[in-house]
Amino acid sequence: MDRIKPRTLSGFMELLPEKQIYFEKMLEKLRESYSLYGFTPLDTPIIESSEILLAKGGGETEKQIYRFTKGDSDLSLRFDLTVPLAKYVAMNYGQLAFPFRRFQIGKVYRGERAQRGRFREFYQADIDVIGDGSLDIINEAEIPGVIYRTFNALGLKRFVIRINNRKILNGFFELVGVGEKSAEVMRTIDKIEKIGEEKVKKLLVDECGVSEDAADKILALITCQEKGIAPLDALNEYVGQNETLDLGISELSTVVKYMADFGVPAENFMIDLTIARGLDYYTGTVYETQMLDHPEIGSICSGGRYDDLAGYYTDKKLPGVGISIGLTRLFFVLEDQKYLNEEMPAAPSDVLIMPMTEDLSPAISFATQLREAGVRTQLHCEKKKFKQKMSYADKLSIPYVVFIGEDEVNAGKVTVKDMTSGEQLTISPAMACTAISAKINEKRTITPIKEPIK
Amino acid sequence: MDRIKPRTLSGFMELLPEKQIYFEKMLEKLRESYSLYGFTPLDTPIIESSEILLAKGGGETEKQIYRFTKGDSDLSLRFDLTVPLAKYVAMNYGQLAFPFRRFQIGKVYRGERAQRGRFREFYQADIDVIGDGSLDIINEAEIPGVIYRTFNALGLKRFVIRINNRKILNGFFELVGVGEKSAEVMRTIDKIEKIGEEKVKKLLVDECGVSEDAADKILALITCQEKGIAPLDALNEYVGQNETLDLGISELSTVVKYMADFGVPAENFMIDLTIARGLDYYTGTVYETQMLDHPEIGSICSGGRYDDLAGYYTDKKLPGVGISIGLTRLFFVLEDQKYLNEEMPAAPSDVLIMPMTEDLSPAISFATQLREAGVRTQLHCEKKKFKQKMSYADKLSIPYVVFIGEDEVNAGKVTVKDMTSGEQLTISPAMACTAISAKINEKRTITPIKEPIK
């Protein structure tokens, strides 16, 4: 037979079993954590009509999209979870209760240039709160709480949530007379970490046509923290001069005020007036999340407040706030940087039973008993040597091996070997079941991620 | 703005939030249940190279496939989870431990004619055990245990797992002299439930060229149960005359022997010699699962033993046994037939907190406390009337509403309203948290499915 060399497309993550168990644990933690905040799970199709997905159209997105025809239909694979959400909310408006809080974790597709750590198929893990006509600022204040708890549940602690409010920059730009250039100015100051303060000033003056004075004021404000001034204090002198700015300051103050009540420790968040988020549609609070030990990988969880989720599909005003985690890339980085927690059980089974009698009934019954107690159990009945079976357990890191031979059957017992300690005990099936089950449960709370000690 | 009417493609299931919660619960139960048997989770890409996916080629599959080009690549969406598994095992052969037990739950794509209850995007939930060179019969005996426990975990009880062994029919056909026509004969007897015994006999004689005598023997065997004879008894008279038949009888006997040890009650399985399963590649035990109250929907979980998983990609002999649940269609039927369990909590939150003071700190802190205790909690801080907020809780079926007004804050208490009983209590936050948490936990074991009483 002519054989085809098996391969997986480049840019598509496909994990070996042990790594997949870590990924699954992360998915589980995300689902749990999002659910704790009353977000309801959604699952929309991966394929949508191109007309729907590309309603907004244009730009990088359209070039990267997987688009094709099937019969008469012009179809595309979703490239994010936001457009499908907009469609869903517009379509089911009458049947949803608002504020509508949903989470969705699913694969999206972008035909990016293949390179290490970049994926064409990747998971996004999104939450959004959608209001009907209006949405209270408290929803924006709650988001850092969700981010904090979610990363904590995964085992990450060394990260900071950076917060800004688009109204502050917009209002401030109006105030210093660069209002009509605000998008351009924002894009420029977004570069400050990359190119530094001086070059940004030069760009503002030379390219954007901002006055020297305005450029100085802008830079003084967005770099105040480095100079030891808290942003809300730095903003104080401008209060009462511009409505948008005042609203932004008030919103940011509210978000900061409730941070502790939402359970976010002071060291895990900060105001950062340089954060603008590229997307034009954010209108209020914006978020970025940075790993303290890996700032170079950029934000691992971003989002913000927007005023118009679904304008392409409905005349209903649907403001919202949401965040997204690019899970596949995050996982890639975590694995690459040795963040996967070796203490987390990553074996497919808790127990491997090796029957050593012709009649397998006692072994099978014990397997059934263990499974009923929630212990993940596998029988090994292949015609292999004892040594081979032990090395199978080893290779899969199965923590307990159970032997059931004639002696055990006659005594109504089982022999349990703890593969970590090497200890071996011959006890009753019921006792073995209780003991193993207890040990397994102890390990259930171990997080998939553990930060390497610096 | 020109608006586009939001719509979802036909043949693509997209559920409203409440229904999605049932679906998620089913996914959770499947993951749990498959894991108990030591199956490890896998996740392969939805897009593969067409060359890989269509290695087997031909037939209905190729016509239905979603295939397109992107750049220079000829790509296809997977139409099942078996071909990707074959690729995965062939590709990662050296890094896997055999027997390799994996489960995968994921979406697959088939461009079928759209009709009610038929889907173009649907979930399959598969398990497979793959051996390296050989695989013991005990793996085939274990599968009904997995099927039984899985459906039980979902809440289904009224179903029967029908079992056959391809070697029995193959051997028996050889014995009665129709060996070279066995595929054709199998396809014909597969129609017995639809067209009846007489017509099958006529087809066997007229179309397949089977002798009258052989046709009688075949029909006597496959209809023995209706005549009150157990299949293994009916087969007894043929023992010792054909090797394949003998092996089939021995395998089927082993499978039946261990059924009780694997925890399958006698009423949930039966031998059915008419089951052949269309696919040519099954070689041993085959399974179908029928809902007793809905035989018309066909098998809800099928599969069997095969000898050559990945012959298109590798010269390694990789025999296996597996089953698949067509989850999207099953869910459609269950919903349609009113099997969704109304007792299962399908609200996005357990608690809705309504703060009634200007300062939201006490309300937010209580939300944080509840979430830390694992209680899914939402704050309702929108500027809406009390009645509207209560009807929001009602619409979402949120079981507990908490009021925190000036009186509560001053007394350090919260008022909890049980939305089911209407009862209302003003107690300490800690007590409220413990009480609600306990009530919620009681309901965690409620299954997503409940059979309607007949």
Quaternary assembly: homodimer
Report the principal-axis shape of chain A: elongated
User: In which order are the strands of the major sheet of chain A placed?
Assistant: 1-5-6-11-10-9-7-8
The CATH architecture classification of the largest domain in chain A is 2-Layer Sandwich
Helical fraction of chain A: 25-40%
Low-confidence stretches of chain A: none
The CATH topology of the largest domain in chain A turns out to be: BirA Bifunctional Protein, domain 2
Q: Average pLDDT of chain A, to the nearest integer?
A: 94
Task: Determine and state the CATH class of the largest domain in chain A.
Answer: Alpha Beta
- Please give the most extensive interface between any two protein chains, plus how many residues each contributes: A-B, 102 and 102 residues
User: Using only CA atoms, what is the Rg of chain A?
Assistant: 28 Å
Derived structural class of chain A: alpha+beta
Number of helices of chain A: 17
Into how many domains do the coordinates of chain A divide?
2
CATH superfamily of the largest domain in chain A: Bira Bifunctional Protein, Domain 2
Termini of chain A, distance in Å? Answer: 54 Å
Taken as a percent bin, the fraction of beta residues of chain A is 15-25%
Major sheet attributes of chain A:
8 strands, mixed
Number of DSSP E strands of chain A: 16
Topology:
Two copies of one chain form a homodimer.
Chain A (H helix, E strand, L loop, with lengths): L16 H20 L3 E2 L5 E3 H4 L5 H6 L2 E4 L2 E5 L4 H10 L8 E10 L11 E10 L7 H17 L4 E7 H10 L6 H8 L2 H4 L1 H10 L5 H11 L8 H6 L6 H16 L10 E3 L10 E10 L10 E5 L13 E7 H10 L14 E5 L5 H12 L4 E3 L6 H10 L4 E5 L1 H6 L2 E5 L5 E4 L1 H14 L12
Parallel strand pairs in A: 1-5, 7-8, 12-13, 12-14
Antiparallel strand pairs in A: 2-4, 3-4, 5-6, 6-11, 7-9, 9-10, 10-11, 14-15, 15-16
